Amino acid sequence: MTSFAPSEDTILRLDHGDLHVTRDGPRDAPALLLVHGTATSSRSWDALVPFLTASHHVIRIDLPGHGRSAEPVGRGYGTPDQAAAVGTALDRIGVEHVVAVGHSSGGYAATALAERRPGLVTALVLINTGPAMDAFAGPEPAPIDPALWPPTDEQIRGFSSTAFRVGFPVPRELVDELRAMTHHAFTASLRASTAYVREQALPARLTTVGKPLQVIFGDQDRRWRPASADDYRVVPGARVTMLPGAGHTPILEEPERTAALVLAFTGTHDARRS
Euclidean distance between the first and final Cα of the chain, in Å? Predict the structure, then answer.
């Protein structure tokens, strides 16, 4: 039987840098790991979490240099390094198995976690995660002089506008989160995501990983070509679903519909802690 537990925020003191972890839902329920994209934080999942906590132990981790997590020791932002930090955090809080859910470039960190720790990740959900760089629809963010950092509200909203369907306002909290990042964290994490997918496209990586896969894509995405979601169909058993009317960030634009798809999938692939 599951037991209620309140939301809990923790700063884990790790060798490679402190990580901020938020946990919601019953701790003895199946674990669901939510990984945010570049230049955001675990707060990007706020609208989705309430739909998940009745049945899951929901874990959100601010990636290194994002949100309330410190920049990594050595200032390295490689995707495998981010995945290693997440894996260490899960070990520290005693979570043995998770379904890993990644939004946008958070899907790269989730995939890298499955590559590094196949015994930890039971299944993967990727939400508007670009499969390869030839699917990128842009635009590339304009370079910002480090001397002019942090960017203005106008610059941030300009960069972030394509992360949502036309007409959806950029949330104030996400503007604040990006401004709070260092220039190095912002630029290095962008470069790391691009390098990871250039090294090997995600469908090839996921075929090798061999985990159950669900792909959710908003059909109004302005960052990645929506039709590129079909590239994931080469992964054996992959489930690919388009969300009509949603842009690049359905976790904020359409949280209830997105949560329903996630829960339908995790109901088959959850693994309870022993």
Answer: 13
